[in-house]
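thought: fold this chain, then report.
action: predict
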Amino acid sequence: MVAYTQNEMFSISDFTKQISKIINNIKEKSFEKIAILRNNKLEAVVISAEEYERLKQIEELVEHTEIYKEIKNRENTKLDDYIEFDDLAKKFDIDLKKL
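observation:
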């Protein structure tokens, strides 16, 4: 779980009152993140656009890595282990004519 310092946590009402200042602090890297609380529960986290882009790139890299691993695993599958498409459709009661 991500930890937040006291100065990184704002109630939603305090956040809306200080939004311009908070956004500037995030942009200038005074804060890495801001936690927005509603009824003392974490509702949202504000991060810089730069950090968001970095996280999305990491997510894509992880996804591509997982796909690559799955392809490598399938390369090792014997042809006898493959299931014909028609048989698979029957197994799951799929009418191919309706597709």
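thought: worth noting. The chain has a mean pLDDT of 93.
final: tokens above.
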